[in-house]
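Protocol step 4 of 5: obtain the predicted structure for the target chain.
Materials: sequence only (see below). No template structures provided, no constraints applied. The aim of this step is simply to have a reference model before the mutagenesis design in step 5. Sequence pasted as it appears in the construct record:
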Amino acid sequence: MFARPAVPAPPPPPPPSVIDGVFRALADPTRRDVVQRLGSQQASVSELAASYDMALPSFIEHLKVLEGCGLVASSKVGRVRTYRLEPDRLTLVEDWLSRQRSLWTRRLDQLDAHLLNMKQQEETPK
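Step 4 output (structure tokens):
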């Protein structure tokens, strides 16, 4: 007899507070736009803020929210703070959505099969 190689267990899902924080951050269109822009290249605060019609302190609050939930990270050289995307947090969201999609696809398939079974029973002569 051959022993099957052990299949590694999937990593545990992140705590709900992590997912909540990421979804809360992404609920705002300005923050989603910043995430999208940082997806192509890192940028300084002034480069990022130049595209928005808002006061710099207000824009920095958006960056703090994004950094607080781990979607972006920053580093400071001299007086310039530069932000970059942390794609691992987006992967958490993608994994969560994928699990939800699988769950609801399975449930809808079961409902479809049940409804087809009911229809066939109604059409079957007694």
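Step 4 remarks: The beta strands are 43-44, 72-77, 80-85. The radius of gyration is 23 Å.
Proceed to step 5.
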